[in-house]
Fold these 3 entries.
Entry 1:
Amino acid sequence: MSAPAASSPPAPPAPPAAPVAPAALAAPAAPAPTAAEHALDFAPLAALVTRAFPDSGPLAVEPMPGGASTRRYFRVTVPGGHAVGMFVPDGAKPEEIAQGASAAARWPFLEVRDLLAARGVDVPAVHGEDTAHGWVLLEDLGDDTLAAYLARNPAEREALYVRAVTDLARAQAALGELPRGSVVATRAFDEALLGWEIHHFREWALEARGVTLSAADRATFDRLADRLAGRIAGWPRAFVHRDYQSRNLMVRPGGALCWIDFQDALLGPRIYDLVALLNDSYQTFDRAFVEARLDDYARACALDAAGRAELGREFDRVTVQRKLKDAGRFVFIDRVKKNPHFLPFVEPTIAKVRASLARLADDDDMRTLAALLDRVLP
């Protein structure tokens, strides 16, 4: 699927950072089944459970919380514990816009999961699949996303983020060459996709909230968006998870981190996932913490001093692009999906953009963009 024009957002899109995998958000109590859940055909899930766990009794499921995705999750009781049933209405289609992507013969979630597992990345086990009926039976990872775990154990933040950064560096190295025909290799952060994401900010974080650019400001914004997208698109490409942040990493007992929500993986700049992780809209880090984690990544990648300096510049440029998109996405989710949960993150996300623009003030384009934002969003 090619990226649509900026004035025509995709349907149904996935949020930039929504928790959409097994137990991605802790909840005090299970949500009541909705009418749509009552209408689901659970017979294929029951068959999967019986095949994977022959001693299981009658199917017992509990709806699980999730984000703005079309996917639904159910905790299933099995002998000795639980598994998770994932229902995906359109499993062969990418949830996020991806330039060059199309419906795949095998679900991207399953194909990317197998690829990551084969390259040594910790991902959920699959107990069974019936993709013809929209169901996959997964390992139950519990409720400890990195975000939820750190809310209870803040003293472990540095150690876990060092782990997340070094895990990412190792995974990028292991995924340097992809299998022939890999769905990941068919999708990329090219200029069209990056530009579409920047315009998603204009359309939703500005225009949808009553901020209309003057003709001159619109021409300036378009020019800056085009140049920023072109610059980032021209960098070497690596494996990109696309949403590598605190709600998409599960903490296992012992501190290992398990990746989830990887179905939209594609090729793009090496720094992209570091931006998602260290400029996470749901976390706040001081600059010293971010710089230390960039140092950790640089060491893991054996970068010299010049390489480390360039890494920091890349980090700020991609922060501008990614966080502009995120701010627009949060408003889009509210207005189109009628889910206001992400609105409190709009202004903090724009603040992250401003901070990166300030560090790039020696660049004429970034200085001009900062001035434009100051004018229209004082």
Entry 2:
Amino acid sequence: MEVVPIILQCFNRIEYTMQVLSSFKNHLLYPHEVIVIDNGSTDGTVEYLKMMKELCFIDYLILNSENKGIAEPKNQGLEIVAEITKNKTIKYVVITDNDIAVPFIRDSDAGCVLSKLVQLLDNSPHIGMCGVDLSRDNAPSYQEWWWRLRQHSMSTPTFAEIAIGFWFSIIRYEYFQDFKFIGESSYGKIDESLRNYITLQKKTKIGLLKGVSVFENGKYKETSPRLGVHLGWTEDFGKYPDYVKMKKQERAKAEQAWKEKNRKW
């Protein structure tokens, strides 16, 4: 049996985690197993996750007693994935943040956003990592450049090439035979590390699932957008200013360490 493991990392911000797990339960049809790693949350998240595990919203749950940053929990999730491979076939793994609610997709072949991502990678060996497109409604103004830099492929119209984070991002599992997440600080440059490895070492592309193809008289007409929601994109600045400040400081530490070590990924 083939499944796609979904690695979800949490640290506080319980209202986001609740919406994200709900979007998994309501929007995903393709066989998957949810792996959640909590990083020492103190806002009720731990109790909520235990309940969701009992209700079978979560298949595997790791509760760290302290915040281990954003690199090590992903490695913990990948260790569970390795155990799953003993009994099930895994070609892809999804890594996502606890503030990315996945879009709703249904079509004639009972597809969902996860099945569309799997189909895209199955049919596109030149793509190594693909996340979900995001609504612009709550995007910060300084992010406007990001939309302008997208490269839209004529040969793969549902795909836009652009640098992304862990936005329900599906990745070829074979890449993790050689790659391990290494953090230079608690937060910072972990997504960039994987992106650089995929593009520089594996020579494949990274981008977004723009939506679903619309056909007319048997011919492709257009791509209809299906957008996820980045729940913390601007909200964090008002709700969690200490969290935003900490991430900024830790990212600066990571950038300095990368320069000193001349890291490429």
Entry 3:
Amino acid sequence: MCLAPYFSDNREEPGKDILGSGKILMTPKASSIFEIACPDCGATIKVDAATHAVIAHTPAPRKKTFEDFEAATRALKDQEERKQSLFRQSVEAEKNKDDVLAKKFAEALRRAKETPDTGRPLRDFDLD
């Protein structure tokens, strides 16, 4: 509910437009309940003026993700193809993993042979 920050003990006069949207409506039965429409998401809430409590919340209607079933089917097929492509890439990477690790190990071993160990490294404690 995105309207909650607007009602943290806000003691405005009844009927005042506190959101700046011009969409505050007084209910016909009593002037103590306000119906407020959110300009951002389209949800509506009912607020009691006396207690400053939210009485009811009606979420905004959900928008359709796809216009028709063909578009939804195409999107699902594209998503399935993308998943298959990612799986194939991960399988290829796993196949080459042994070769890559062997090459890295051979390079590290070559470097170790080129620069022989010079003994124990000097520590700050040894210099005192």
